[in-house]
Write a structure and sequence with these properties.
Length: 739
């Protein structure tokens, strides 16, 4: 009979429901047929292994009868011998509720302290033993129910379909009431709870208000915070804190050798001489809480001259430390810690970028800033930290959505079957998935903050909140300084002061008029790139504006802010195409006119008269006498800005045309005149005995040169025709990218 009771206390039904084969390399929840199960060697352990309690016949009968009924519900069959014998024994009178309560406390073996009372609540919940929970309640609450059986039926119905995977006290909260805070008979605990229900995991925090009555700690009331759902098929990554303590050791290799021989240890070594030891050991659920999702497992990190112990609660960390000291693997030094870090931090440390655990914890807590690191380095470090965590979060939380979106993106972008690292715009896609992609009207970044944020250091939370305030858009550089520049939002018409350590005055792409696509993030009253920054020359502006109009985000006067996220996929694909297919710019003169080969052809009636007149005018500088095969001899002159030409060109400059934003402005050629003064060349003139030709770079300039030539040589020439051919620019990639 005691054997049966001991199995009940140890959670026979719980083991039957929850037990699966443990994987020593990771802490996780297994999903079997769509239902979450905790994995581990054993769900619960009794308070005292060698525990004998004298019972009266009445007590023994009813204890065994209740166990028999509970085991029958769990489909655990007793032997025929036991059942036949049970049918012959005398049935004593029923026990009163007070008698039952007294018996349960005796069966516990010892008085539970305040925290153990909460953990006993979770033990009862884990194995659906609400009769045990009933006896953890105060007397006035127990009187509301007929007995422990009616309470158990009510709670079983309330929690039907649930599977408790974690219930651990992680914090004791001091009351705001100073008198109550000093009352040693009242305690307020906060526990982490992870529940499998139907086909989902629910994670929440649960408050327990515990009070000492008649030398027994009882649960006066409980309160649950809102639950957060973890999707099917996922392990509860990021769903708990880890507690760490580091110890300096003279010979880490010796410690590792001892752990290799220790039962229940799995050693995972890397190429850098470091190792992680996963410990699977039995823990007392009453003392340490229920955690079948991580199997009460600890970790031991072996460094070069230190070892670091980690567990999912301070109590479990202390238990692991005692065990290693008892086996003389560790000495009695106190070490450093405990450090409280989210499980996410484990994955960063495993990358091996830190020489010691202390260095890692300082980095995690953003000590780099206080140590005087360069601001640009700090920004990169923060982005790297958060980027790594977000990537892991996406792989855990939104693996299916990521795969579907990436498959579509890589196909439409023409780089199918490439990984994100190999894709030319993989970083741009990652940024879209984090900041713009929505599921149930919530962004990936918002999910990350809601579900992981409370595990992260305060400094990281502040950075994530700044990320939430990011402003995506197209920005036009308006002025440039060393390592910074001002840019105006092309559509919102708001200016931003952006810091960029690569910015240098006069060097592309840091030039006025250049366009940037980026997600700007505020930081200390300044702005920085949120991730990818694409720079485009100013002649891309018209194409960008036309696209934004085509998707309904802008109508030349109003920007529809609320439509950015619904249109974000279209913007993403537009940017991919914009980077792949460069826009060929148009060329313009200093006066703002479209540049191209502009030519006027005349028939010559009197060659000598034209030649004599031209040589007298200050506008013409003789260059060469040349001969063309089949055409005979001709004279070539440079046409400079002088005389009447100068007067008319000044008038043209005084009323310049508005320059097209998609073009490049050409620089004019200057040369010395007869007096040695630098003057602008505005065209060329070629004179043949039968024809004359004016060449320049715009039709507007051609009109002026024709007017001058007609004024002085109009009697000797007959206008034949004009030509214009727009200038061509070699196609080359003008867009530049920064990350």
């Amino acid at each position: 009979m005691m054997m049966l009771w001991e199995h009940r206390r140890r959670g026979a039904k719980g083991i039957y429901v929850h037990y699966v084969i443990a994987n020593p390399a990771e802490s996780q929840v297994e999903w079997l047929d769509g239902i979450p199960f905790g994995q581990g060697d054993s769900l619960l352990q009794s308070l005292a292994e060698e525990h004998v309690i004298p019972l009266t016949y009445q007590e023994a009968y009813h204890v065994f009868e209740e166990m028999r009924l509970q085991l029958a519900k769990a489909r655990v069959e007793l032997t025929d011998e036991v059942q036949n014998h049970w049918a012959t024994v005398d049935r004593p009178e029923a026990m009163t509720d007070t008698h039952w309560h007294s018996l349960i406390l005796r069966l516990m073996g010892r008085t539970l302290d305040a925290k153990e009372t909460v953990h006993a609540y979770f033990q009862g919940w884990a194995i659906d033993d609400w009769s045990l929970v009933y006896h953890l309640m105060p007397a006035q609450m127990r009187t509301k129910h007929r007995n422990h059986l009616t309470y158990a039926r009510q709670m079983s119905k309330k929690h039907g379909g649930e599977s408790l995977l974690r219930g651990i006290v992680v914090e004791e909260k001091k009351s705001k009431n100073s008198k109550e805070q000093q009352d040693p008979k009242k305690r307020h605990f906060i526990a982490q709870v992870l529940v499998g229900k139907d086909n989902q995991l629910l994670q929440q925090r649960m408050h327990f208000y515990v009070e000492l009555q008649d030398e027994q700690w009882v649960i006066q009331r409980t309160r649950r915070e809102s639950a957060k759902e973890i999707p099917p098929g996922s392990e509860p990554f990021f769903q708990g804190l880890w507690y760490w303590r580091s110890f300096a050791v003279p010979n880490a290799e010796h410690v590792l050798d001892l752990l290799r021989q220790k039962e229940g240890c799995h050693v995972d070594e890397n190429d850098e001489g470091l190792a992680i030891v996963y410990v699977s050991h039995m823990n007392d659920a009453i003392e340490l809480g229920v955690d079948v999702s991580r199997d009460a497992r600890g970790q031991i990190w072996i460094g070069r001259r230190e070892i670091v112990l980690g567990a999912v609660s301070e109590d479990r960390l202390a238990s692991l430390l005692q065990e290693l000291r008892r086996e003389k693997i560790l000495g009695k030094q106190s070490g450093k810690g405990p450090f409280q870090l989210p499980e996410a931090a484990n994955y960063l440390y495993r990358e091996g970028h830190f020489d010691s655990f202390e260095e890692f914890t300082k980095a995690w807590e953003e000590e780099y800033r206080r140590a005087g690191e360069l601001e640009g380095t700090m920004i990169t470090f923060e982005a790297s930290q958060l980027g790594t965590l977000l990537t892991q979060f996406i792989e855990w939380r939104f693996a299916d959505q990521w795969k579907q979106s990436w498959k579509r993106f890589s196909r439409l972008s023409g780089e199918e079957n490439k990984s994100m690292e190999e894709h030319s715009q993989g970083a741009l896609f990652w940024e879209w998935f984090v900041f713009d992609q929505t599921i149930d009207n919530q962004r990936t970044l918002d999910f990350f903050i809601d579900e992981v944020g409370f595990h992260l250091p305060k400094g990281m939370i502040e950075k994530l909140e700044q990320w939430q305030e990011s402003v995506p858009g197209f920005y036009v550089i308006t002025s440039v300084e060393e390592k910074a520049f001002w840019a105006e939002d092309m559509f919102r018409k708001k200016s931003y002061y952006i810091e960029d350590n690569d910015c240098k005055i006069g060097e592309a792409p840091y030039e006025e008029g250049y366009i940037i696509f980026s997600r700007l993030i505020p930081r200390e009253k300044k702005w920085h790139y949120g991730g990818v920054a694409h720079f485009f020359p100013r002649w891309y502006r018209q194409s960008i504006e036309k696209f934004m109009e085509s998707i309904g985000l802008w109508n030349s006067s109003r920007f529809r802010e609320e439509q950015w996220q619904p249109r974000s996929w279209s913007i993403l694909m537009f940017l991919v195409e914009l980077c792949k297919k460069p826009i060929i710019p148009k060329l313009f003169t200093m006066e703002g006119h479209l540049a191209g080969m502009s030519r006027a052809v005349y028939q010559v009636k009197d060659y000598s008269a034209v030649k004599t007149t031209v040589e007298k005018l200050s506008e013409f500088i003789f260059v060469a006498r040349e001969r063309q095969k089949g055409q005979g001899e001709y004279l070539r002159y440079d046409w400079i800005e002088s005389g009447l030409t100068s007067q008319m060109m000044r008038a043209l400059l005084e009323d310049p045309a508005s320059k097209d934003l998609e073009g490049l402005c050409l620089n004019d050629i200057f040369q010395p005149d007869d007096e040695g003064k630098e003057v602008r060349q505005v065209g060329t003139f070629m004179l043949h005995k039968q024809y004359a030709v004016i060449d320049t770079i715009s039709m507007e300039r051609l009109d002026i040169l024709k007017h001058v030539l007609t004024k002085y040589c109009g009697f000797y020439l007959v206008h034949d025709e004009d030509f214009f051919e727009e200038a061509e620019v070699l196609a080359q990639s003008s867009a530049q990218e920064k990350q």
